[in-house]
Amino acid sequence: MSRVVVAIDCMGGDHGPVITVPAAIAAVDADPDLSVVLVGLSDTIGAALAAAGRTESDRLRVLHAPEVVAMDEPPANALRSKKKSSMRVAINLVKAGEADACVSAGNTGALMATSRFVLKTLPGIERPAICGVLPSMRGRTYMLDLGANVDCTPVQLLQFGIMGASLVGALDHVDAPSVGLLNIGVEDIKGNDTVKQAAELLRLSGVNFYGNVEGDDIYKGTVDVIVCDGFVGNVALKTSEGLAQMLGVVLRREVTRTWMTRLAGLCALPVMKAFKRTVDHRRYNGASLLGLQGVVVKSHGSADAFSFGFAIGRAVEEVRMGLAGRISERVNQLQRGAA
Amino acid sequence: MSRVVVAIDCMGGDHGPVITVPAAIAAVDADPDLSVVLVGLSDTIGAALAAAGRTESDRLRVLHAPEVVAMDEPPANALRSKKKSSMRVAINLVKAGEADACVSAGNTGALMATSRFVLKTLPGIERPAICGVLPSMRGRTYMLDLGANVDCTPVQLLQFGIMGASLVGALDHVDAPSVGLLNIGVEDIKGNDTVKQAAELLRLSGVNFYGNVEGDDIYKGTVDVIVCDGFVGNVALKTSEGLAQMLGVVLRREVTRTWMTRLAGLCALPVMKAFKRTVDHRRYNGASLLGLQGVVVKSHGSADAFSFGFAIGRAVEEVRMGLAGRISERVNQLQRGAA
Q: What topology does CATH give the domain A126-286?
């Protein structure tokens, strides 16, 4: 397999190096063709390496960056005044060709703004988008945009469809991934003008367009890719997180109610573990920032090491499959077709 | 308690009179001050009454309506050419003062369009909205709009907030229900222009405005009422339905995998039942069409009799609490305040 170098923003996320460094170590141990650059406060990273009984090496380099972007920092602020942040330095490595990809669990808005500023968008792409993956009854559903763009034009939604299909093609080796447009009904007359025009563009685009889908189709697995604007996508994602969390809390409350229910819960433990494994959001961690001249993957801020490892794996896979090139090619094809 | 008459569109929903008639019977049996008018094809309704060992009575009247609005019929079509539909006739009863409320499990778009045409909106209300209720970790969250209005102005979102707060005040006897605005971040700078302006209006309105909330706040129970446009609200609702359904399917699959897991599942049955009861969507059935000169409640199309009964109960409660009057009063107060 081809050698891949991933720059890791070790300071991002709720936990920082305590999580990101062990995840990086596990990743290089599992993949002999992977090297990582651990970017951030070298003291803290060194301590995390030492805690794992490791030292810096060729495949586990440390690069000091003196600043940290806060999780709630306004993106414009991070872009303007945190030029030596671990996030910025990690992205710079991709721009300079010293790394093939950047992975960060940091501030999403800042990551998108910085990536866009440093790496630039691919030719023909108006706006990059955040593409996440969710479990479904039939496997997994990719969804974009998850929050980078609150207002989208029909052309931008079309481009999201193209980018999403390219991602699924690269990661899941699907030939012509099906693309659905998120709407509030399956009929053509449903939705606002933007969505109606986007449907028209997608229908004519050569993308394998399924048509309109609804919120429940995310989990039914009706299509491979669901396209929506970042406002709607973010609400759908957060709503799902909230519901899953509530169900977990209510279930735990029921199980611990009496000694009878505790016993019952104990008996059902293997079932619950298998259940949790299937829907474990940690296995779906890693959202791709698509449409950039380079691979950038965003991990959930609260990710643990296991979960952060999936985000690293996603970045490696995108590099190996030449994702950015695939997207460019597809956009160019369509533009030649339209011309 | 005051006498209430509810007109029931017996033909609406996926199952029609098989569900709606038994639910109506149970409702009048439970509430001596409730009468219902069963509207629809009198033969089918008569058969459903007979199947329950009942006949028509003063409190269980049958009113024949020869037409039925199909679940997938375009609302404009239903409005124009189904003037003798069970839905239309039931709403007409409210307009004529012969019923206090209408309950239907039928076509949502047609129900909204017909209600608006026949009953008219309350003075000062620009657009009626659909308000549903969802379980939360702290009780329940009301949310509107769930799909009647795909595009909303800031003023309309403000009015949704007022209507939702009036509903919670009436149903849950809360003095100053908290209202949140659905957004993709809690900071004021988040979201599109419409949402930002709506936040400003809500802040100045005298409504107990909490500020921005995110998708997961629906289930956290951060506020009593969540306001959003109908596109976003519908996606959030359907996404939740889809996730809950998938989790149910995956759990059943895990439980029935081997005889060991079946046994474990059997042991855990009381826990699962208690769990299901807490989050049983049937107990939350019944979405209120707010902003009309009359009470109209929409049941889920797939509701069973138990579930449809909750929608009837909701309508009765709204009538007894004088909901339409409360909304009018609140809107007038605000307009006087603004003048």
A: Isopropylmalate Dehydrogenase (3.40.718)
